Amino acid sequence: MDERFILKVEDLTVSFDGFKAVDHLSFYVEPNECRVIIGPNGAGKTTVLDLICGRTKATEGSVVFKGKELLAMREDQIVHAGVGRKFQTPSVYEDLTVFENLELSYPKGHGVFGALAFKRDETVRARIKEIAQTIFLDGQLDEKAAFLSHGQKQWLEIGMLLIQDPELLMLDEPVAGMSVAERKKTAELLNRIIQDRSVIVIEHDMGFVADIATRVTVLHQGKTLSEGTMDRVQNDPKVVEVYLGH
Ligand code: ADP
Ligand code: MG
Question: DSSP 3-state assignment of 129?
C-alpha cells in the first residue's frame, strides 16, 4: 500500500442514463491535506462526494481509503471506516441544545453500567466541551440549536462530525451564507482540524479557498481541468477561461 496517500480516487465514473456526471476522475489526497474542489455549477463536485461516501454507486473506478476499497462498502461502513461527510444544508436538531446535538453524535460504544457508565459520561462530557471550543460554541452549550445563527449551525454540524473523529472529512460549501467574519473563523477552524485529519472541501469563495487549500482540483464536466496549488490553478489559462473569468 502506498502510504503517501490517505485517499486514492482512480478512474471514478458515474453515468446517469448515459450522461457521465463524473468521468474517469483521478486524484490523490495526502494525510493532513486540505483539498479544495472548485468548478462551475454542474461540474460534478457534489457527485464526487456522493460517490466517495457511498450515497451514489459508481459505474466504474476505485476509491481507496487507507487501503480499503470504499466502492465495495455501504454508507454506514464507510462512516465507520473514518469518512465523515457534511451536506450543503445544515441538519442539526433544532429543538435540542448544542450539547445534546453533540452528545447524540458521539460514537456509540458497548453498553456500560454503574461506575463504568459514570466514567463514560465524564469522558463524553469532556469531549463535547473540547469540540464545542473548537467550533466556537463553548459559550452556547445549553442553547437550543434553533437560536443559533446560520453560520453557528454550520459549525455545530462540523462539530457533530468531528466528535466521531473521522480521518477524512468532506464538506460541501460550508461557508455559503456566512458573514465575512464567520468565513474567517471557519478558515481558522479548518486549518486547525487538518492537523489531525484530511479534509475535502467544495467551495466557490476564492478568498476562502486561498485561506484553506493545500491543493486545488478544478472540476469541469466531471473531469479534472487543472490541479495544484491555489497560485498555479488561479493562473492556469484554462481555469480562467471556463471558471474564474466569469
Ligand atoms: P456540482 O456540485 O458541481 O454543481 P453536481 O455533482 O450536483 O454538480 O451535478 C453534476 C451533474 O450531474 C448535473 O448535471 C446534475 O444534474 C447531474 N446529477 C447529479 N446527481 C444526479 C442524479 N442522481 N441523477 C441524474 N443526474 C444527476
Ligand atoms: Mg454541488
Answer: helix
Ligand that lies nearest to the alpha carbon of residue 45, given by its number in the listed order: 1
Q: Which atom of ligand 1 is nearest to the CA of 17?
A: 25
Pocket test for ligand 1, best of 47, 48, 220 (most atoms within 8 A of CB): 47
Q: Which domains does the chain have, with CATH numbers?
A: 7-85+169-190+199-244 (3.40.50.300)
Which of the two residues, 33 and 110, has the higher pLDDT score? 33
Query: Which three cell numbers mark 130?
Result: 473540547
pLDDT digits (tens, 9 = 90+) for 176-198: 999 999 999 999 999 999 999 99
Place of cell 457534489: 46
CA of 86 from ligand 2 middle (Å) equals: 12
Total length of the chain: 246
DSSP assignment letter at 39: -
- Are 145 and 94 within 8 A, CB to CB? yes
The pTM score is 0.94
Q: What is the pLDDT of residue 235?
A: 94
Rounded to the nearest whole angstrom, what is the distance from the C-alpha of residue 42 to the centroid of ligand 2?
7
In DSSP notation, 141-175 reads: TTSBGGGS-HHHHHHHHHHHHHTT--SEEEEESTT
The rounded distance, in Å, linking the Cα atoms of 48 and 202 is 10
Nearest-angstrom CA–CA distance, 45 and 169: 15
Q: Which ligand is nearest to the CA of 38?
A: 1
Q: Give the model's pLDDT for residue 90.
A: 73
